[in-house]
Amino acid sequence: PDDVEEMESSRMTESIRKALMGMAALLETSNRGKIYREGISAVITGRPNVGKSSLLNALLRESRAIVTPIPGTTRDVIEESLSIKGIPVRTIDTAGVRETEDVVERMGVDRAQKAVEEADVVIAVLDAEQGFDDDAKDFLSGLLEKKLVVVLNKTDLIREDSIPELLAQVRGWLLDRCAEEPGVITTSASENRGIEALEDAIAGIVLMGSAPKAEGAMISSLRHRQAIDEAHTSLAQALLTSQFGMPLDLLTVDLRAAVDALGRITGETVSEDVIDRIFSEFCIGK
Predict the structure, then answer these.
(1) Is the pLDDT reported for residue 186 higher than 60?
(2) Do 19 and 129 fall within a single domain?
């Protein structure tokens, strides 16, 4: 009867719609997959002698960069690779940013600024002992357009009860100038304190805006992304075909194209039997 066929057609339309929603959710994970596949670059920047190299060593869990109390020790960029929460991170330590007449140091500062411009994430290190003064504010002002994590380092050199007030000052200043508050972390790199919180902040800001995993699935391959995108397009066409009550032969073409695209991922090909089984779930003549 016509009412039965109409009911079954409605069921098929709803099934296609649900498949589309699931596929759209999966497609949204591709940005996250790209991050885990290709990684990011994170630049550690700050004024001289704020503990940038100590922070790099703490993140690496080894002594890679030379650390001295002499400002300007780091003259060039130092690059190291590590994994933070499963994300490959190319971490770059840079020369302290300041005005200088020293030609070699000036070259290091120029390279530091270039590295900041190209970075996916900027880790801006401040000296907690110096407080949140005008120089610190001036330094941060040039970084507000970047994906930014602010680190208040050397907290071992200040009274513990003064840390909350310092954090409030920095966060309040940032909130007045940023659409979204950057992460603000307190560390003592020399004592390896606050490093895990810093790693969480880096991963969080990188993944911000990328879709969460769709029931544990995630697209990490460009080839898979293209195949699912094609399947999504074919399913969208199938949905229109079903909604407008067009001939089932046309619906078969759209469904076959969608399954063929997915078959490029699974390695399976679509036979007439597969299409028959799809339609057999509904009381509709093919």
Answers:
(1) yes
(2) no
Which range marks the domain in which residue 232 is found? 2-29+214-280
In a domain, 44, yes or no: yes
**Residue 69 CB-half CA count within 13 A:** 1
DSSP per residue over 75-135, as a string? -S-EEEEEEETTEEEEEEE---------HHHHHHHHHHHHHHHH-SEEEEEEEGGG-S-HH
Mean pLDDT (the chain) is: 80
> In this structure, how many other beta carbons lie within 10 angstroms of the beta carbon of residue 242?
23
Average pLDDT over residues 130-138: 94
User: Residues 64-88: what's their mean pLDDT?
Assistant: 68
How many other C-beta atoms are found inside a 10 Å radius of the C-beta of residue 121? 23
Residue 222: which pLDDT band, with cuts at 50, 70 and 90?
confident
Q: State which amino acid sits at residue 88.
A: P
Do 250 and 147 share a domain, yes or no?
no
**pLDDT for the residue numbered 107:** 73
168 and 100 within one domain: yes
The residue ranking higher by pLDDT, 43 or 4, is 43
- Tens-digit pLDDT profile for residues 94-133: 876 656 566 565 676 678 788 889 889 999 999 999 999 9
Q: Collapse the DSSP code of 7 into the 3-class scheme (helix H, G, I; strand E, B; otherwise coil) and give the result.
A: helix
154 shares its domain with 254: no
Strands (E), the chain: 40-46, 78-84, 87-93, 121-127, 148-153, 183-186
Residues 92 and 234 in one domain: no
User: Are both 51 and 185 inside the same structural domain?
Assistant: yes
Angstrom distance (rounded) from CA 195 to CA 202: 11
Judge whether 237 and 18 are in contact, CB under 8 Å: no
Q: Are the C-beta atoms of 45 and 124 separated by less than 8 Å?
A: yes
C-alpha to C-alpha distance for 124 and 139, rounded to whole angstroms: 9
